[in-house]
Every structure is written in structure tokens, then in C-alpha cells.
Amino acid sequence: MKDKLYKKVLIISTSIMAILIIFLLPGVFSGKILLNPVLLTIGTLQIRWYGLLIATGVFLSFYLASDTAKKWEISEDDLSTAVMIGIIFSIIGARLYYVIFNWDIYSKMPSEIFKTWHGGMAIHGGILGALLSVYIYTKLKKNITFNFLEGLDLMAHVLPLGQAIGRWGNFFNYEAYGGPTSLPWKMFIPKPFRMPGYENFEYFHPTFLYESLWDLGIFLFLFYYARNKKKFDGEIISLYLILYSAGRGWIELLRTDSLMFMGLKVAVLISIVFIILGIIMYFVLRKYQKN
């Protein structure tokens, strides 16, 4: 394995995850340790774990993408500008997606729409926002050093790392957990955080952990593949859509807080669409590359 950066990322990421699972999770999952979503309070300012973890995921993803961008001869200015625009579009997309599918709630208290610190961000909306931002930037920017598909590949090969880290924000918020379970790795949820109808249950599937581990695995695969094995533009985003959606669709079936549409889980439907889209993109773009 010649990629020295990949070796470092592999060792550091797996070590941190192992430490968290061995030393932090047992106490929290058993209920001996109760988490506080707020890390620090300074006057009226609250610094929450969720926001800190999201920011950490964005920073690390950008750092790693910068190194890959050099290998792909993409200018630092183009990357930095695209990332800033992508962050804005992702936040708007994630919030808008969540609000739309919870409009019966937000229509009664519209002031809550802009209070993202109260929770309510949907990753699929964030992904769609990021895809849109890359498209707009590559179409409007003159003398750009990457095309639309290259931009998507660059985003997709580090995005799962940000998702893997961000899921731990759900851990500190006691949210995004699954249904009741008696499995050995069951997670204790304090009563104030239990979903309606589940007040009498104490232990639930830690679906945040399932997805974090799945995302980390996807990241380690795509990061190495993008830097060493990539064959055509659009290959990485295609693989990302297939792999991430396969795991997310299955994990969503376990969750108790899913967004619903006509009695169906929206994330499952979107995951199916993304898998089909990813498969079509992969074979069409590969054929186009050969021709």
C-alpha cells in the first residue's frame, strides 16, 4: 500500500472508533453514564456536541479532499470556494427536506424553521443540496479546474467520513435510535428522550452506531479507491450512492423517528432511488469512458 496518507487515516480512524466503543459506549449503553447534549455554556451561548462534531467532520473531510485535489490537479481556490458553497447548500437542503416532511408541525410554529440548533436535519436533503451546489458551481465558474463529475467524485470520497463523525452528534442528543431490543449492545435511552409510545421501554437499537460504522467502512474503501483505483469520472459518486443507500435503507427500517410519506419511510424510498440511480450511472458512465 503506497498511499501513506491512507495508512495514517486507516490507523487513526479505526483506533479512535475502537477507543470509543471500548471505553465510552459500555457506560452509556448501560445507563450508568448519562450524556449532556451541551458541551459548554458561556453566558447565553451554548456549544453543543452535535455542532462541534459536524464542524469536525467538515474540517477533516476538507483536509483530506485537499490532498486528493492536488493529485487530481484541482486548484485549491476552486476546491475552497466549492466547499463553502456546498456547506451552505447542504445546510439549507438538510433543513428544508426535514421541514417539508414535517410541515404539519412547522406550519403551526414557523419561527422554529430557522432554529436548526433544536435539531431537525435530514442527511438526504444535505446530499441533494451538495449535488446541486457542485452542478451550479461547475456550470457558472469560468476556467474551473474540475468538471461536474470530478467534483462529485471528490465530494463523495470524503463525505462518508463527515457522516460517520456527525452520527455521534445523534448519540449525544439521544436521537436517531431504533426500536426496543434486548441484544447485548442495546442502548439505554432516558425517559425524556423516548419517542411517544415507547415510554415504558428502556433499551433500544443504537442505530447511530450502525450507520457510523457503515459510513466509516464506506469512507475507508472509497478514499483508497478514489486515490489509487479510479477508472472514470463519476465512478466514486456512483459507488457512494449504491453503498451508502444500501446500508441506510436497511438501518432506517429499525428506526423509530423516521420521516414518513403516505405511510412509508421517506429515507427507505430515497435509498432505493439512489441505489437505482447509482447503478445506472456506473454502467452508463463506464460505457461512455470506454467509447
What's the SSE blueprint?
Blueprint: H1 4-30, E1 38-42, E2 45-48, H2 49-71, H3 76-100, H4 103-106, H5 123-140, H6 148-156, H7 159-173, E3 187-188, E4 203-204, H8 207-228, H9 235-252, E5 260-261, E6 264-265, H10 266-290
Antiparallel strand pairs: 1-2, 3-4, 5-6
What does this structure look like?
The protein is mainly α. The chain has one domain (4-290). Helices cover 64% and strands 6% of the residues. The strands form 3 sheets. It has a two-stranded antiparallel ribbon with strand order 1-2. It has a two-stranded antiparallel ribbon with strand order 3-4. Strand 1 (38-42) and strand 2 form a beta hairpin. Helix 8 (207-228) runs antiparallel to helix 9. It is globular and about 60 Å long.
- The overall pLDDT average reads 93
Mind summarizing the main beta sheet?
A: 2 strands, antiparallel
Order the strands across the largest sheet as they lie in space: 1-2
Strand content: 5-15%
Number of domains: 1
Structural class: mainly alpha
- Encode the helix/strand succession as letters: HEEHHHHHHEEHHEEH
Question: Uncertain regions: pLDDT < 50 for 5+ in a row?
Answer: none
Shape: globular
Termini Cα gap: 31 Å
Number of helices: 10
Please give the share of residues in helix: 55-70%
E-strand count: 6
Cα-atom radius of gyration: 20 Å
